[in-house]
Amino acid sequence: MNSRRICPSAGLVEGGDGFRFTVTENGTEVPAFVVRFKGRAHGWLNRCSHMPVELDWQPARFFDTSGLYLICATHGALYAPDTGRCVAGRCMHAGLVPVAVVERDGWIELNEEGGQGVGRQ
User: What residues contact residue 55 under an 8 Å CB cut-off, 6+ apart?
Assistant: First the structure.
C-alpha cells in the first residue's frame, strides 16, 4: 500500500483540533484535513460544499463548540464529521469530499494508492 504519514495518532484528539495537510487533486495541491470522531480518523478536503472556501475558523479548528459537527467558518454550515454530509446550512444534502486516511502503527496516513486518496475514505 502506498501511503504518506500525516501526523502522529496521539496528536489527533476526539472532537478537538484537526490536522491540515495537502493532497493532489487533478494535478493541483489542495488543502485537506483530518479529525478524530467516535474514535476514528476522518479525512476531508478543506472546502465547503456550498462555496470553495476553507472550513476552519482558526487554523486546524473544524469542530463547532459542541464538538459534534464540523462547521464552515464562512457560512456556518454544519457537517457530520464521520460522513461529511451537510446537516444544516446552505449546502443541505451536499457533502464534503472524502480523503482516504488510515491509522496504522501510531500514525495517521494518507492512502495514496490510486491518486492521493481523494474521493474515497
Answer: 33, 46, 47, 48, 62, 70, 71, 72, 73, 79
